[in-house]
UniProtKB/TrEMBL annotation:
<protein>
    <submittedName>
        <fullName>CoA transferase</fullName>
    </submittedName>
</protein>
<keyword id="KW-0808">Transferase</keyword>
<dbReference type="InterPro" id="IPR003673">
    <property type="entry name" value="CoA-Trfase_fam_III"/>
</dbReference>
<dbReference type="GO" id="GO:0016740">
    <property type="term" value="F:transferase activity"/>
</dbReference>
<dbReference type="Pfam" id="PF02515">
    <property type="entry name" value="CoA_transf_3"/>
</dbReference>
<dbReference type="InterPro" id="IPR023606">
    <property type="entry name" value="CoA-Trfase_III_dom_1_sf"/>
</dbReference>
<dbReference type="InterPro" id="IPR050483">
    <property type="entry name" value="CoA-transferase_III_domain"/>
</dbReference>
<feature type="region of interest" description="Disordered">
    <location>
        <begin position="350"/>
        <end position="395"/>
    </location>
</feature>
<dbReference type="InterPro" id="IPR044855">
    <property type="entry name" value="CoA-Trfase_III_dom3_sf"/>
</dbReference>
Length: 395
């Protein structure tokens, strides 16, 4: 029997109607613009015709003939291939910028000005434009330094507090500074859009990898600036909390992340060493930090008696934060068990896609299209064709 109720369509994304001219390359900029695209923005990725974004060639591994590095940060975008050294290509890029709400670029400082696409130039014809520049070390004194994540991790201090004591420093396992910078840039863009909504004024938003990293060092930076401490690498230990490190269970490593005295007492009871909680060397966190090595020795013997899974079940039930060290297969399996929907099926969004991490009640993320082939949308973009968002598959 036919129904009189119309089919309910997915809600448009929170940023539906926002056009982003994306000159970003590699990771920080593209990661940020992908998040904006997930939320409904029309992101026009402007790439050079001879190869496009560098990460298109950053493989193996590859999926469907494309580098998975590129695929991981470029869904929901449209690609236009333009030679900015050619007057026609530059004019086409300018036409996109003139109708955009947001411009994102991470060229060396001064490059966009030489092209005639600097902030002061383009704001004359698009005064409401939010112009986001991402640099490695800032647009002034650091303009000559290349903004590669590894370089910033090294020079910005992250490697000095990562790795084993006495080592030469270790980078994080992903380009973490790029990711953090992309998040800061996205926050800045959203704040600038809100300002424009109130005033009609665009503005320039600048974010550097170095500044983002120093901000993200949080407690380590505060220890240095507030107490004159120069933190050093401590392996998997925490400078201010213990036990907060890796122990060996009977079969594999186990992480304990004990954050307060109550959790410590529960830990001692469950491992059969209740007397440790009453020992003056371990009764408070400050005392435990002062006697870290002695405590680690006491706990190690008890934890080695059972498997990591046994301890995970036992200690979690007692409110003690702990868990095994998973590889990525184990991490995504955990997300699946917890119902986080962290992975997307390889359909419209393309292969190997991690879901947008924010959940919205009214304006869910949408996954409209796979990462684009180089120049895939050049003709439609130059013709001024606006995409139709009728395939929202919000989670």
């Amino acid at each position: 029997m036919p129904t009189d109720h119309p089919q309910e369509l997915p809600a448009p994304g929170a940023l539906s109607g926002i056009v982003v001219a994306d000159f970003g390359r590699v990771l920080a900029g593209p990661y940020m613009t992908m998040l904006l695209a997930d939320l409904g923005a029309d992101v026009i990725k402007i790439e050079r015709p001879d190869g496009g974004d560098d990460t298109r060639a950053w493989g193996p591994p590859f999926a469907d003939g494309q580098a998975t590095y590129f695929l991981g940060v470029n869904r929901n975008k449209r690609s236009v291939a333009l030679d900015l050294a050619d007057p026609d290509g530059l004019a086409a890029a300018r036409s996109i910028v003139d109708r955009a709400d947001v411009l994102v670029e991470n060229f060396r400082p001064g490059t966009m000005e030489k092209l005639g696409l600097g902030f002061e130039e383009v704001r004359r014809t698009n005064p409401g434009l939010v112009y986001c520049s991402v640099t490695g070390f800032g647009a002034d004194g650091g303009a000559a330094l290349p903004g590669y994540d590894l370089l910033v991790q090294a020079m910005g201090g992250l490697m000095s507090v990562t790795g084993e004591p006495g080592g030469r420093g270790t980078k994080a396992g992903v380009a973490l500074v790029d990711v953090i910078t992309g998040l800061h840039a996205g926050l800045g863009v959203l704040a600038a859009l809100r300002h424009r909504e109130r005033t009609g004024e665009g503005q320039r938003v600048e974010v550097s990898l170095l500044g983002s990293l120093l901000s993200a060092l949080t407690n380590q930076a505060a220890a240095h600036l507030g107490a004159g401490v120069v933190p050093r690498a401590m392996g998997n230990r925490h400078p201010s909390i213990t036990p907060y490190e890796v122990f060996e269970a009977r079969d594999r490593p186990l992480v304990l992340a004990v954050g307060n005295d109550r959790q410590f007492r529960a830990l001692c009871e469950r491992i059969g060493r209740a007397e440790l909680a009453g020992d003056e060397r371990f009764a408070t966190n400050t005392a435990r930090v002062a006697h870290r090595d002695a405590l680690t020795a006491e706990l190690s013997g008890a934890l080695a008696a059972r498997t990591a899974d046994d301890w995970f079940e036992e200690l979690t039930a007692a409110g003690v934060p702990c868990g095994p060290i998973n590889d990525l297969a184990g991490a995504f399996a955990l997300a699946d068990r917890l119902g986080l929907d962290a992975r997307l099926p390889g359909d419209a969004a393309g292969p190997g896609q991690v879901a947008h991490p924010v959940r919205f009640g009214a304006t869910p993320p949408s996954y409209r299209s796979a990462p684009p082939r180089l120049g895939q949308h050049t003709d439609e973009i130059l013709a001024g064709v606006t995409p139709v968002d009728d395939s929202n598959t919000g989670l």
